[in-house]
What does this fold into?
Amino acid sequence: MRRRLRALPAWAIRHELTLLVLATLLPFAVLGVFGAQEGYRAEQARIQSRALRLAHDVSGDVDQFIADTGALIEALARVPTIKRAEQPQADQLLTELVQRYPYYESLYVLDSAGRVVAAGGAELPPPGPRQSYVQEALTRGATITTDPLQSRTQRRHVFVVATPLWDEGGAPGGVIAASVNLLRLQEGLRRADLPANSSVLVVDASGRVVARRTDPEEWVGRDALFSGAVRDALRLREGVSEGDFVDGLRKLSGFSPTTRVPWEVIVGIPLDEAYGALRRELVGALARLALAAVAAGGAAWLLARRLTRPIGDLAAAARAFAEGDLARRAPVSGPDEVAALAQTLNRMAAALERQVAELRESRERERIASERALVELRRLHSEFIAVAAHELRTPVAAAKSYAELLLRHEDHEVSLPAATRRQSLARLDGVCDRLARLVRSLLGASRIQAGGLELERLPFDVTPLVRRVVDEIGAASPGHDVALRMRPRTAAIAVGDAERAEDVLVNLLVNATKYSPPGSNVFVDILEDDRWLEVAVSDEGPGVPVGERAAIFERFARGATRGGGSEGGVGLGLYIARAYVEAMGGSIGVRSGSGKGATFWFRLPRPAEADRGAPAPRDEGEDVRARDGRRSRAENETVAIRMAATR
Amino acid sequence: MTTNAGAFRILVTDDDPDLLFSLRTHLEADGFEVQAASGGEAALVAAEKALPHLAVLDLLMPGMDGFEVARRLKRLGDVPIIMLTAMDDEDTIVKGLEQFADDYVTKPFSYRQLLARVRRVLERAWPSGEPDAPTVALGDGLEIDFTRRQILRGGQPLERLTPTEARLLQLLARNAGRVLPNALILDRVWPDGGGSTQGLWEYVRRLRQKLGDDPEHPRYLESERGIGYRLKRP
It folds into this structure.
């Protein structure tokens, strides 16, 4: 199976590990974000309170200015010269003061009717009782401050601080007032501690601009209600807001009311100025956080890769193994566990490689063996044909010879006595029997060759069979005395295939007559014990040397004294005999005869033993039995071929 | 069974009793004297008793195969041999023919075929169509009985001959009056190459001794120096 393994999926351990690290960092990141948010808010509040404080400061400045102005004119009100309006001293004093404090447009004294009785400065308010602040000061008997006024003549924006003048009787005799140039008030608003680009705006309760730190000429007196910041200030009186300033820019505005006049001081700081640093800091903090996360992720990635590379190598090695590259080894590196895994994998691969090599080797050996077996099989097959043909030749020649003989007599070519003719016919008949047996053997042999040697296992009485064969062979071998010597008193029942058993006995008897001198005896004994029935053929020939006894049942065996022909046609019947006997569950062998000669025997199971199905026992002593064990197919072939040699 | 004096004697050897019996019956019916043997040993025993004029040998027999029998037969006398073989193996046949056999018949065969070959081989060896007389007269009452390998004087046994001596003397007798070259003698008497000129000379010396011949002035066995030997006609 060489199915290519899937490559590592896109979602790998290194991703997991990276995520893990990032997940571990997440609480810190959240804390960091929260912290940044907190800091941001605190800083924002700080900035806003600063804006508010600035507004307070400026409104304080305005109050202070007004208070100072009030204190100045109240001090002047107690000065006798001013009280009595003594000229020219009063004018001189006032002019001096105006010159010293340029934000006073003018200082002047009015009588209770509103007429100017003393004045210093360029601009004087319009005289007359219609001046409301005169009446107000006189009515209230205290210092008052007016809303900004516009001088009709000089178009200057001013406001007036006035206080009553008391005569000796304690009655109000007039008013002393200071006209404050609003443009000049700007000077007081230029505080050093204001942030750059910040604006300071003072509006009255109706939203008109009282003072502005920049461009005052343009702005003073204008309605500023269009500005959200101004509206917020008038509405809230004190606080901070973010909105459009009068110049149209969005600003952080702090506003605070003045106490001496109903005005609002608004300090506007451009949002960039107010929050820029904070935002930059926040962005910086977030950037640092992100950087830290990226760094952590990257480090985790690298670590994970370092960790997973050996695993990837392992996977690659395993993939190579799976694709058949068994010589491939995984690098032993990385963490201990992975290295151990790599080692294990390598050991496994080595074992696998060894086993595959062994398997290949054994398969090769098997192939060679089966090729050899095939060659051997072909050789045996052709040998089988040759042996079969060869073994058929002699009996056919004999049969033909008798037929010719009788024909010649019929044709009066020769003249044979009746006895000879009779004998010839009998011999012809016997030859035909031999041929029939030979043909049966050949058929059996070809069946063995086809791998299907199956013999019957039926009970049969051995004695009549032995008697018949003994008579037959005895008749065919007049030179030998063939006799049945010992036999059981009762029926000798064995289990097997009677025809094959007869073939085996014929083979043993023919061998006995063939290998023993003429005139000698050949005895057949039928012996039995509880389990086995034995048929033994004893001759008085040269016997079989002990060393050759096992071999004569092997293939191609030819005893030096037995069957020493130049070709293997003789004695090979023992092979077939052995195949038959073993196929019937019996055994076959040879032992020394009683005197000289050899005793060939075969055993067949008796019915009880056959039912038990036990293998034949080994014989004791010098008895030699054909080799035990199952035959290989090749051996069966051999047996099949030898079968053809049976006579 | 006919056993007239002029009949050829044929040794038939086959381990198959049926074939042996039928061949014997056939050949006897055709007027031959038959020595039937069921094996090599028996064949040699029979040949020792009376040397056959022709041997029909089965190549494959238990105990001693046809080649071995032929080898030993040739030692007893110059016996023509026809091999019966069940083999188709060319090499075996060629080897057998070259070394020992005058002809061969492959089993199964028809008797007529065998008979034809038997007659041809016999005619080649005995062109007269008659077998050798049982005895050959050398003159002076001296006779040689090749069947029993004896030298007779006045009908009485004088000396026994060894098989090789008999073979040599028979060869010379069949060609009496002619000089036989040494090479031819060696080839026929020692077919398996065991002879030498020196050995031949030794045999001739012994034969002269047994015949009572004078080596200086031989009456029966003459030497042609450097060429060969000649048995004089009586």
Remarks:
- The first helix of chain B runs from residue 17 to 29.
- The CA atoms of residues 68 and 212 of chain B lie 35 Å apart.
- The interface with chain A takes residues 14-19, 21-23, 25-26, 29-30, 38, 42, 59-63, 65, 67, 86-88, 106-112 of chain B (CB under 8 Å).
- DSSP finds eight helices and twelve strands in chain B.
